[in-house]
Design goal:
Strand content: 15-25%
Bound molecules: flavin mononucleotide
Helix content: 25-40%
Radius of gyration: 14 Å
Largest sheet: 7 strands, mixed
């Protein structure tokens, strides 16, 4: 099977988790191997090396990611330089429109870009990633599945044999 994607998320009240499951179903449609895992299920940060694409989801807390997500990103310094060329993406649930969900996404993407990961914007829908106000509604559900499909498609296109040489 070409490509392996990790959807890595934290969720306290279930909204971000619902988004994670939808992103997972979109990626699965594209015939890649997908795992949706909570950040605290990652015992060894080296586990991130197994994946060709990493999609990170967090609730918006004070306009940025939850500390649990930041903590894992900070632990990923142990892999500095080793995530280069993997595909990255992000999504977030907030309570309010204009409540900081886009800044949450760009904060996550900053870390992924510093790792040398490849981030694809989207000319339609969520340009930086997918945002939801509370639980995903029908429109967000489709955007989550679309994010999964798009990351899977890019992973397949970038998974040429020479990438890890
Ligand atoms: C500590 C904390 C900080 C929050 N900060 C914001 C915020 O800055 N903007 C916002 O719109 N919602 C904020 N919220 C609301 C959550 O982002 C929102 O309820 C989200 O849907 C929770 O996602 P979850 O169900 O995956 O935990 C905050 C919630 C908590 C608990």
């Amino acid at each position: 099977m070409a490509g392996k994607i990790l959807i890595l998320y934290y969720s306290s009240t279930g909204n971000t988790e619902k988004m994670a499951k939808l992103v997972e179903s979109g990626a699965k449609e594209s015939g890649v191997s997908v795992a949706a895992r909570r950040v605290n299920d990652i015992k060894k940060v080296d586990e991130l090396l197994e994946y060709d694409g990493i999609i990170v989801g967090s609730p918006t807390y004070y306009g940025t990611m939850a500390y649990q997500v930041k903590q894992l990103l900070d632990r990923s310094v142990a892999l500095h330089g080793k995530l280069e060329g993997k595909v990255g993406a992000a999504f977030s649930s907030s309570a309010n429109i204009g409540g900081g969900n886009e800044t949450t996404i760009t904060d996550i993407l900053n870390a992924l870009l510093i790792h040398g990961m490849v981030v694809q914007g989207d000319p339609q829908g969520g340009h930086y990633g997918v945002v939801s106000i509370g639980a995903p509604d029908g429109r967000v559900e489709e955007q989550c599945r679309r994010l999964g499909r798009r990351v899977a498609s890019l992973v397949k296109r970038l998974s040429w044999p020479a990438r890890n040489q």
